[in-house]
Amino acid sequence: MNPEPVVGIAGATGLVGREMISLLLQREFPHSELRLFASADSQGEVIEAGSEEITVEELGDESFNGVDIVLFATSAALSEKFVPLASDAGAVSIDNSSHFRMHKDVPLIVPEVNAHALKSSDKVVANPNCSTVELVLLLDVIQKLSPMKRVVVTTFQSVSGAGQDALDELWNQTLAIFNQQDLIQKNFPQQIAFNCIPQIDTFLESGYTKEEQKIVNESRKILGLPKLSITATAVRVPVFHSHAESVNVELERELPLETLNSALASAPGIEFFPAFDIYPMQMTAAGGDSVQVGRVRRDLSVPHGLDVWIVSDNLRKGAALNAVQIAELYLKKFA
Amino acid sequence: MNPEPVVGIAGATGLVGREMISLLLQREFPHSELRLFASADSQGEVIEAGSEEITVEELGDESFNGVDIVLFATSAALSEKFVPLASDAGAVSIDNSSHFRMHKDVPLIVPEVNAHALKSSDKVVANPNCSTVELVLLLDVIQKLSPMKRVVVTTFQSVSGAGQDALDELWNQTLAIFNQQDLIQKNFPQQIAFNCIPQIDTFLESGYTKEEQKIVNESRKILGLPKLSITATAVRVPVFHSHAESVNVELERELPLETLNSALASAPGIEFFPAFDIYPMQMTAAGGDSVQVGRVRRDLSVPHGLDVWIVSDNLRKGAALNAVQIAELYLKKFA
């Protein structure tokens, strides 16, 4: 690939798309041109990208001619339609939707964890679900020290994962409560202001939501542990940015906390909080690049157990940043 | 005991104390007189209790003369001081603080679970921690069907558990964010508006908080399972009322979901939500008496596992209601 590629962003005007633009510039991602694609509604909108002003183009069948890498921040339905068109046009696609993640020929990459799984022949690369990315960064550090027997995770997910309209909905519902007005509810199945909703995405026959099943399936694929015992409960909380997770890990053999803590302190992508009383929160993680890991405790309810609390900005490491890192990895390995 | 006792409430002007007054009246708790005690600040305040107006008395060494039952909604320090004085005056104390809960001679009672543990000779009875009460109602139903191997719980606790000032703090911090003013923080160790705080109470040397350790210790005592394998992560969420909990239970042997669901549907104190897509939330539980149980799933990460979501109003079943129920049980058994 051209070491100064033409880069496209599909879905450039959404929350994740805008983060992608900002991260490409901030990280000085080498590119000869940046092209922005969105729906017809946004066509003609001018977006400032550093010193440049870029006019948004309508995403269409012919969008990808001459584009080398496309970052997709689109819905699963749009990715299903447009990623193959990008491939036909010779571009490499890095897709943030769920559509290709579990396809057996598509690698699902978190660069700190499974960079090795990315091959030069890959024309489509999938970016994991926001709640999976932070989890696998932690689990990868653990599994390198001791095999995992079982993982139980409960998430505290912010509304930004559901887009700009969802941010507005939390804001407007909260204001409506202060002003004693009726609440308008569109983006969430229930009231989100001052309430936690134990449903993200739709339900499967098993009773788990798709979000919960994604955490299970995607973690197994990224970690290369297809039989990993893992269960998830995914909950939306009335917070604007960042996802927190309460993670319980049962290990096959003893892992001294000092060994784990020192591995966490030097792990790429992780910011480790060693003191019990200084812990990560959504407030501390929002806007940052790392997965913040804290409250590491020895769970005495099993012979070798751990309780850990992790937080990460779901729009950045959970979405846009990881996609940009995949693009960087691709260039580094194959340009 | 007199079947129409003189009832006292210590800490009557706080959130839990006020719920106690309202529940005693609503449930037509038999009493010949209701006396309200609080700190000197509230002395002389007149509280409407049904058709009566009751003047608040200052809680003092002589308060309990002639009182038969005292419900304590006071701090651990005040309970430590005043409960023995109530005993000396011949009153039965039902204490909502943590002070006596783990004393080996004090029963810790959730009437639906361990009514049998209350004896006529008990002059002090402890009311469990709010996050423990709802959990043991669920676990008791499960353990009667199949022995539990291990429990992993993560809580989503509302601010009302920390009192009226804490409710005001969430309200005022949220308003300050809307008005772009500085946030005032007094009741919580970190900002609570639009943020989750993985700390409730102070830290122990193990890295767990006292709240987390209470869930472990108190559940074991109430269930009569001193070796129950259980671990907890307790998190404060920006919600006014009710505590939610994500509960994972590993069982010793197979328990068909139909068996569990039908037991939950008929369990006293539990409101069961059988459909996946109609689940309990803090919104649905606030102001109610029951422990709402939903999202019961078969966790496939272990041979016999369950994921469950429970919610209850922490001021009612989690505190005031359970205390009143203990008083009712005492009268029923021993009056």
Can you walk me through this structure?
2 copies of one chain form a homodimer. With 335 residues, chain A is an alpha/beta fold. Chain A has 2 domains: 6-128 and 319-334, NAD(P)-binding Rossmann-like Domain (Rossmann fold, 3-Layer(aba) Sandwich); 132-314, 2-Layer Sandwich (Dihydrodipicolinate Reductase, domain 2). Chain A is 32% helix and 23% strand. The first copy, chain A, has 9 helices and 14 strands. Chain A has helices spanning 15-26, 76-88, 111-114, 130-145, 164-178, 210-223, 257-266, 282-285, 316-334, and strands at 6-10, 33-38, 46-49, 52-55, 57-58, 69-72, 92-95, 124-126, 148-157, 230-236, 243-251, 270-272, 291-299, 305-312. In chain A, helix 4 runs parallel beside helix 6, helix 4 packs across helix 7 (257-266) and helix 4 (130-145) crosses helix 9 (316-334). The N and C termini of chain A lie close together (5 Å). Chains A and B meet through strand 9, helix 5, strand 10, strand 11 and strand 13 of A and strand 9, helix 5, strand 10, strand 11 and strand 13 of B.
